[in-house]
Amino acid sequence: MGQHRGESRARGISRGPLIVLGLVVVIVLGVFGWFQLRDRINDQGVAAAGACVEGESVLAVAADPDIAPQLQTLADHFTETAPVIRDQCVSVTVTAVASDTVRDALSAGPDGPWDAAALGPRPALWIPSSSHSVKQVSATGVISGEARPLATSPVVLAVRTAFANAPGTTAIDWKDLPSLQTGRDSLATLGLPGWGSLGVPLPVGPGAESTEMAVEAVAAAVTGSSTGPVTEEQARSVPVTSALTALALGYEASSGTKPATTREALTALAEQGDPATSGIHAVAATEQQVYQALRDAPGADITTSMPKGPTPVADHPAAVLAGPSVDETQSRAAAQFAEFVRRPEQAQVLADAGFRVEGLARPDDTPLAFPGFESTLVPADAAAAAELMQVIRNPITPRTSTVLLDLSSSMGEREGTATRLANTTAALAAHVDRSPDSSNLGLWEYSTALDGSRPYTTVVATGPLSAGGFTEGTRRQALDARLAKATPATGSSTYTSLEAAYTSAVDGYTPGRTNSVLLVTDGANDDSVARADLLSAIAAASSTSKPVRIDVVTIGENSDLNTLQALADRTGGSLEKVASSDGAALPTAISKLLS
């Protein structure tokens, strides 16, 4: 019988699926390994960064003293976050230094000298009181990018409560301050009888930037500007110089100690007795400075009053600086710290200190109202601001002066880009333009036989600058026009002309102010009058009840120097020698003797 084979063959497993499975396992393991490697690399990078492989970097910040304490608090918070920039661990240190002091130092340029002993380490970040200071840095290449504000505070008048509550004080405009400062019993018109004239101190030293901003507000209001900025032309205009002169002279005439800084002025305001008999009635200060003064002296009788007109604002901008000492790490750190300060949770530190920060609440521990205002004053540039403060620092006192101008042929010699005479008349015209309307000025010219047999002629009779009746308009305009027309003649009859001008000045004496003859000459007398005769004639013409001084500006070499010095000394005048009419020396000398 046949038999089937009972053997069975085992079926094999296909190789294809095994290969695929193996590849999948390899890929999974590879991917897993990659992630492990990547994480390890990242961990190593973080560890390296955390270890500050490139070392440490200290960001130096120079900040206005008003905001420096809060910035140091925020700097500590920033440092606590362990910031790492370009593999360097960054910390921040803040030095409190007056804004105008830093401004002047930075104006020397990005690689200019820096007094670390007085100003602290050279900063990579500067936070002044206001963009006012930033605009006045005259050097280029100092500030990197745009300086953006951190916190603001308007400039106001710090006053006593009785002053703020008077019926007329709410209507005060910035442009009213000069007339209130100089007007007799001017505060009576505001409802404060017996208080006399307004007393607004004008500290101009380091730490008195509020004065500079207030001065700009006065100038802007006088020109009718709603927002500014005050231009250099406006700063030199008669209305502005007259207003600022009145403001400065009124302050100079006030009694008592003159505060050197805004803080000192605020302290004096708070500590003085009866405000009606005090010399200080109002202090130009930032709102935050007043807030701080109240915190330092709880219960002090001071508050704020905000004049109408464009309001200057201390906006405390963060200016990242440039220069050899500021590397990329420092620049980035400065920018990051500024942004850190702007975060609401950090900026609240500034708001709590009395600064205004948009979106954040004002302090509730003060009687100050933090009112709104109409418009913000745009700061002036460096040139305009310098012109304004020049008037405040060197106000031109109203006086009666006759200018006796030498037209000898030597005045036609060229010095610089113009003749000696052209340089002189330009300097005289600039002073005339800056002089207040209340000044009495006149112009005589002399040479040889200018008016018949006389070597001199009265070009513009001495009198008030604002007086009219001249072909050109006012006396001021007539002086400008005649100075522009002056041309050299021949000789130099100085003695005869000076005697005549002096006698005329004594005859036309104006009581209650300085009276003078200003001789501007560049050479020796060449007429027949002897030195002794001139000295004798001047002595005979002088009067103790009508004192007239002889002031002299002599240009270049002058063999008559001893005689001219003797005349100045005997009449209480001064003599200024300048080597050349070209440059700043001549205008400075003229301004000194006519101010």
From TrEMBL:
Gene3D superfamilies named among the record's database cross-references: von Willebrand factor, type A domain (3.40.50.410)
Q: Name one Pfam family in it.
A: VWA
Q: Which residues cross the membrane?
A: 12-35
Instruction: List the keywords (alphabetical).
Output: Membrane, Transmembrane, Transmembrane helix
Residues in domain VWFA? 400-593
For this entry, the protein name equals VWFA domain-containing protein
| Species of provenance | Rhodococcus wratislaviensis NBRC 100605
